[in-house]
Task: structure prediction
Amino acid sequence: MESDRIKWNARYQSEDSFLGEHPSPFLAREIERVKALVPGPKALDIACGEGRNSVFLARHGFRVTGLDISDTGLEKGKNRAQTMGLAVEFRRVDLDDYSIQGTFDLILNFNFLLRELIPFEVAALNPGGVLLYDTIMASDQLIQIHKPAYLLQPGELSRLFGTFQGEVLFSEESMSGEMPTARVLFRKTGFTAE
Ligand SMILES: C[S@@+](CC[C@H](N)C(=O)[O-])C[C@H]1O[C@@H](n2cnc3c(N)ncnc32)[C@H](O)[C@@H]1O
Result:
């Protein structure tokens, strides 16, 4: 939506680095396990923002595509990748109206909730591919105001991923702190031997 582009461009213009330079702590913690699990190097970072996680994956040898609606965020991601001598393909798309192109060995969906997209993310995984999902939950402790539709309900994420062909290898909800989050590490079913 155009209003999302305007809102996020303004946020990314207002600060050097809106969500910080470091990758998500969940991704940093799980990267070695993810590398051991994935069937290949193709990765997709959904709503990649300023590219902190895309760049981290590229540093770990992944061939990364980062998608986002904010041209300002993507520009910062491009500059960051270039400075580090890394190749990342950043593409401006509106995920409200987008079909994922191609298939991937790893998909990240961090701090962004579009429930309708989740089945398409799973469909875009190669057999044995891994999806990391980590986003905000509804809670009285949230200090920022968020649209209710953009917040997960307790138990919702693991329930959702439990319906797909594959395995939830890790699931966690942390209700403490000012930003309660839910996260899962899902692995799609691989090829089965005849
Ligand atoms: C909280 S930020 C998360 C950025 C990144 N995933 C991270 O964790 O660093 C949410 C991102 O969603 C993007 N976004 C919001 N609506 C979008 C849409 N309709 N299509 C694509 N990206 C969108 C914003 O531009 C923003 O970069």
